[in-house]
TrEMBL record:
<dbReference type="InterPro" id="IPR027417">
    <property type="entry name" value="P-loop_NTPase"/>
</dbReference>
<protein>
    <recommendedName>
        <fullName>NB-ARC domain-containing protein</fullName>
    </recommendedName>
</protein>
<feature type="compositionally biased region" description="Basic and acidic residues">
    <location>
        <begin position="8"/>
        <end position="20"/>
    </location>
</feature>
<dbReference type="InterPro" id="IPR059179">
    <property type="entry name" value="MLKL-like_MCAfunc"/>
</dbReference>
<feature type="region of interest" description="Disordered">
    <location>
        <begin position="1"/>
        <end position="20"/>
    </location>
</feature>
<dbReference type="InterPro" id="IPR011990">
    <property type="entry name" value="TPR-like_helical_dom_sf"/>
</dbReference>
Amino acid sequence: MKTFSKKPKTDPNDKQSLSQKEEFKLQEDNVVQTLNFAIAAINITKDIVPINLAKGILGTIANVLNIVQNKSDFLAIAYKCEAITRALARATDGATDDGLRGTLGDALSELNLSVNRIYSEVASKKELKWWQRLFSVTIDRDQISGWEKDLDRILVLFNTEVITGMAIGMKKLALGLNGNANANVNVLKFRPMVPPSRPSMFYGRGMGKSSLAKAILNEPPITEKFGDRRFFVTYDGLDPSSMTFETFMTRLAEALGTVVTGSDSMHQISAFLRSASALVVLDNAETFEEASGSPGLQKIPPAITEIANIPGVILILTSRSRRNAPDVAWLTKDVPPLDLNSAQAVFFRIYGGASRSHAEGEIECLLEALEFHPLSITILANAAQQNSWSPAMLLKRWNDRRSKLLDRGKGKLQSLSFTMQLSLSSPSIQDLGENGLRALTVIASLPQGLNDDLASDLLPSVPQIDNICDVLCTQSLIYRQGCFVKMLAPIRHYVQDSLPPPDPICLRDIRAFYYGAVRRCSLQRDNLADVIISDHLNIEHMVVFDLTRGLCRVLEVFVDSSTWKLKAHCLFSLGSLCGFLTQVTGSMRAFEAAEALYISAGNHEQMAQCVVRRADNYRSQGHFTQSQHVLENLQRSDSWERLTNEIQAGICYFLDRSRMYAFTASADGLFVKSMNNPTWGLLSKISHWRAKLYHGGDIAQVKIHLEDLLQCTSAGNYGGYQNALQGLAEVAYREGRLSESMDILNTIVELVEGKYLQKVFLVNVWKAVIASDQGNYDLARELIHKSSGPIESLTLHDARSFLYRIYHAGQVELAAGQYHRAESYFACTIEGCDMQGDIRFKTFSLRGLGEVALARDNLNLAKQRFAETQSLCAETGVPPRNLYSCALFCALPERFEGWMLFLEGRLPFANDRVM
């Protein structure tokens, strides 16, 4: 899409550059957070695995990630490291250092060598004193890719399941068509007289399929093995609509150097191929795969099948399409884009306008923009060479003209437009009609591509969108990656530049679905939350598009809206999105900006929603005083009287939540103002009695009223019912009736399981605390481990859940007397809190570290930790003596009394050295 600026004098390229920088900054922040949590998870696993060698390996991996933690290039390495962490935890469970013989010992030794080599190479680069922010340029992607492959190879050693498959490198293929190393070409070892051979199909668009096939044909070992029995049959330049079986056979016979006569041409060609081993390439197979003009075409697939089944014949097809003869056990291979080094080599082999050493930086940016697409690289290199463009001039031409620069002549080797038009005119694409082009333009407009699982929800106005995506994928116009269908950059640029813009109805549908998901989604991890997590870049793109360029189109979604109101709607959605992704600072900024716009637009009710969201963000991070101030200021504002009774009641409810945590109001008065409101009444009554519990009220009265309120909740009121049950579980826990508390928590799990996964997670963690209090530490550890998988917790949305899980794990280990583990968990929680700005769990964890220090008789360190805890209590607004009053399951066992001794001034002095 083109970028429009509200300031005519501003260069649109500058605007676009700014947008790209902001997007890059957002992606970089996500990378930092993901890598930091990966490091945290690895450090935790390191403390748990029983094998010293495995501990050392994990420590080295964490060191690698610590060095490179702000670079997106290393995310793939991070994911491999996560996989290793899981594998080591699984493989070493129950093992000992004395038993490291056989497969496990060998695998650990190989892994140790690899990770140490990687660490050595990474560390050596850092020692060159390059700035850390420029570190990614000192290790190229090929080296990183090599590390990935090395780690992949070793991960296989830890697999407990048999992995079958075949991936034969070109050199292995050339040296006898045997072996099974990881590489780029998939074919089967030639075994004479063992039918059938396993033919291969190379897929891709502009990826150099034909060149790859020719390279295979001309490898010296291939020429030695097959001699003059190497055949390259091209079907390029033929019109699929006029293709016939006779044309197919004639081309094949000509390439084989034979003459076929009569009607039984297939028998004659088959006899020729059976006479000796042969390697046959059918190039541009999409020509006959897409053909539809002749009734004899149905003979082609059986003919290919017959050739493929001839003993001693290796058959390779190259095709843009994914159709193939159905009765052949094909080995298929998508020819991937080039790696960086290969792409540069291709470019500079053609372009001589500057030396590679002097122009690599500028050309690298261009190659990345092309996503290392071979045809596009070749076309641009020829254009730069023919026009004597400098690398800087070429980059400028590309930024100005994009896909137009990829049309340098006629024919598919000189023009991306030519090959695209061939594809778009193919019968299968033509059969899709207008809807095929509508889908294509939409996919090109979305930065993540189209979510395949949600395609029909996102594009209800495009009939049979799933089938359309299948056809586009078959034609290699798009490709599947994860749950998305995507488009290579050169193809995307062509679609954006040469086809009509995305259909407004389609954009309206996508916008309505995404905005609706953001608005309706609660903090519980339901299906809508999953949509927001998976598609968050697309959602951000839609919001930014609406804010900067698409306001006129938003009118179709938001009726009777001013420009201010429209922008505010966009910012509100962005704030909600950031909240789901645990980007709390960004969320509050978006809500604050939306709040100002809503005031300007005179929409006081929606403005109040922004204020409530900001206040609740403060509360969720433990900033209770700030949360109160925000809501109290709203109550004192001119807007207050313009709000409905329901909205006022909701604001009073959220204000009292913060007052409850900060003990700035008596429990008798908490939640009273919202009790009589139909929407907030039941929840307020439950919260009132829970506040009584937290503030030291009569437990018997609390229990009676909560049981009465439980009977008042309707069958479908999950929120009210589970809220009352949680209060009763806390009552039982406070009174020491641990088994009863556990039973109530199990009831909550049964109630919300499959509906609110976040709540299930929290309740299972609380159950672990109860199990720990009962002395069953193994069960407690198991419950925490099962509450959320170690890698799932690294996703952005689950970052807060990660804090909860790790803190409670430290809580359990402290109770079990495992002080080293507890210390690691608490320290990890503090690191996570610093990343997220969560001071509440940081306060809990600092207190935990103080108890650990005291248990080790390090009084000075204990006092230091307790003093830091006290300081944070002042920041949160929570009285130090009430640190856990509203978080009963977060409290440490009463036998750890260092904190109370510190507050009472009874912690003895000591001359211990602070560690």
